[in-house]
C-alpha cells in the first residue's frame, strides 16, 4: 500500500501550530483514504484545503481529527469544513463530559450548566466545528484509546484513555474563572518568558553527553496532555502522531501500542511532540518509544517531523530535543516556513526537492 503525509507550516511569527493531512491507499491500491489532523490557524486552514485539492485531487475528506481545542490546532479546521466535504469528525467534547467529573468540583457556586458553558466559551474554535458537524449530520466520534469505534482503516487511537482524559479536563484553564487580573498576570508572564528567550545562554553538548532531562510531571498543560495520539499501521510501516502530548500521555500511549500487539522502537515515522518542546519529551519515554541512543554515525532508522513556525527558534524546536531524536536514529525534519512531504515511492511525483534534515547541534540551550 502507498501513503503520503504532509505537514504544512503554521504561524507567521514565532507561534507554532499543527496542520497535517495524509492519504493512503487500500491494500489493492484501488481507493484512497484522505484525512486531516488539526488545521492550525485560519490561514493555514485555507492552505490545507488548497493542498488537498491540488495534490490529492479531491474535495472529500474521509476523517478529520481535532487533537485538542487549542486555537493553533482547531481554528483552521473551520476552513476545512467550509470548503471540503468531511465524512467523519474525531474530537473530544469536554462540554459533554461534565457529568463525569462534576463531583470533583469543590466550588459550590458552580452549577453543571455553568461549568458546561465555561468549557464552550473557553474553546470557541473547537465548539464551532462541533456545532457545524452536528448541524450537518456529520458523525462525531470521541477518540479514546479504550473505545476506538471510529471504523477508520489502519487507525488506532492510542491516547488518551477515557479516565486519563477526565483527569486532564478537570484542570483545563477554562474551568477556572478568567478575570482581568488573571489576564494581566498572564500577559506579564508571557512578556517575561519572551525576554528570557532572548537572553538564552548556550552550552556545548556531545553525542554521548545528553543534556535533555525528563520534564516534571506537571510540565505539560492539561489541554496539551489531553491530545489525541494516533497510530497508523500501513502494512508494517508504523506511523505515530503525537500532537502536543507530554510524557504522561506518551507513556500511556506506549502501553496501548504494546497492548495492541505492536512492538515499540520500530516506527517509520514519528511526530515530535509539541513542536519540539523540551517540556513534553524526555529520555525515559524516548528510550521506550524509539530506542536508546546509538553509536555516532549510525544509520537512521525512522523519520521525525516537527511542526515549527518560521521564527520559532530557539523555542521550537528545542535543540536538545532535536539531538535526542537524532542520537536514537531519527532523521529530524522541521516545517519552519515550508510544507514538508513524507511519502512512499508509489505516490505521484510532485517534483519537490528532498528536505534538508536538521543537524546535530553542538551548542544547545542552557535552561
From TrEMBL:
<keyword id="KW-0378">Hydrolase</keyword>
<feature type="region of interest" description="Disordered">
    <location>
        <begin position="345"/>
        <end position="367"/>
    </location>
</feature>
<dbReference type="GO" id="GO:0016787">
    <property type="term" value="F:hydrolase activity"/>
</dbReference>
<dbReference type="InterPro" id="IPR036866">
    <property type="entry name" value="RibonucZ/Hydroxyglut_hydro"/>
</dbReference>
<dbReference type="InterPro" id="IPR052159">
    <property type="entry name" value="Competence_DNA_uptake"/>
</dbReference>
<protein>
    <submittedName>
        <fullName>MBL fold metallo-hydrolase</fullName>
    </submittedName>
</protein>
Amino acid at each position: 500500500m502507498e501513503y503520503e503525509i504532509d505537514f504544512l507550516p503554521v504561524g507567521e511569527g514565532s507561534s507554532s501550530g499543527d496542520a497535517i493531512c495524509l492519504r493512503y491507499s487500500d491494500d489493492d491500491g484501488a481507493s484512497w483514504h484522505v484525512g486531516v489532523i488539526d488545521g492550525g490557524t485560519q490561514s493555514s486552514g485555507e492552505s490545507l484545503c488548497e493542498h488537498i485539492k491540488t495534490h490529492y485531487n479531491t474535495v472529500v475528506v474521509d476523517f478529520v481529527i481535532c487533537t485538542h481545542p487549542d486555537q493553533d490546532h482547531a481554528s483552521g479546521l473551520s476552513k476545512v469544513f467550509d470548503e471540503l466535504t468531511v465524512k467523519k469528525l474525531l474530537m473530544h467534547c469536554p462540554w459533554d463530559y461534565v457529568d463525569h467529573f462534576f463531583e470533583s468540583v469543590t466550588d459550590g457556586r458552580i452549577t453543571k450548566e455553568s461549568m458546561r458553558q465555561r468549557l464552550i466559551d473557553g474553546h470557541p474554535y473547537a465548539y464551532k466545528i462541533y456545532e457545524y458537524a452536528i448541524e450537518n449530520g456529520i458523525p462525531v466520534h470521541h477518540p479514546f484509546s479504550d473505545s476506538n469505534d471510529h471504523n477508520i482503516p489502519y487507525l488506532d487511537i492510542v491516547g488518551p484513555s477515557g479516565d486519563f482524559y477526565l483527569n486532564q479536563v478537570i484542570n483545563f484553564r477554562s474551568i477556572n474563572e478568567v478575570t482581568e487580573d488573571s489576564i494581566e498576570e498572564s500577559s506579564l508572564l508571557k512578556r517575561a518568558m519572551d525576554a528570557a528567550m532572548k537572553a538564552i545562554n548556550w552550552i556545548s553538548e556531545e553525542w554521548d553527553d545528553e543534556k535533555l532531562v525528563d520534564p516534571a510531571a506537571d510540565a505539560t498543560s492539561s489541554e496539551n496532555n489531553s491530545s489525541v495520539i494516533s497510530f497508523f499501521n500501513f502494512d508494517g510501516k508504523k506511523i505515530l502522531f503525537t500532537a502536543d502530548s507530554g510524557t504522561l500521555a506518551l507513556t500511556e500511549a506506549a502501553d496501548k501500542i504494546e497492548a495492541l500487539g505492536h512492538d515499540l522502537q520500530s516506527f517509520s515515522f514519528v511526530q515530535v511532540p509539541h513542536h519540539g518542546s523540551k517540556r513534553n519529551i524526555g529520555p525515559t519515554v524516548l528510550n521506550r518509544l524509539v530506542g536508546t541512543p546509538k553509536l555516532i554515525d549510525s544509520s537512521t532508522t525512522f523519520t521525525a517531523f516537527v511542526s515549527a513556525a518560521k521564527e520559532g527558534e530557539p523555542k521550537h524546536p528545542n535543540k536538545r530535543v532535536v539531538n535526542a531524536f537524532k542520537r536514537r536514529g531519527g532523521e529530524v525534519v522541521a516545517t519552519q516556513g515550508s510544507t514538508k512531504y513524507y511519502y512512499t515511492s508509489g505516490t505521484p511525483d510532485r517534483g519537490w526537492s528532498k528536505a534538508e534534515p536538521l543537524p546535530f547541534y553542538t551548542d544547545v540551550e542552557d535552561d
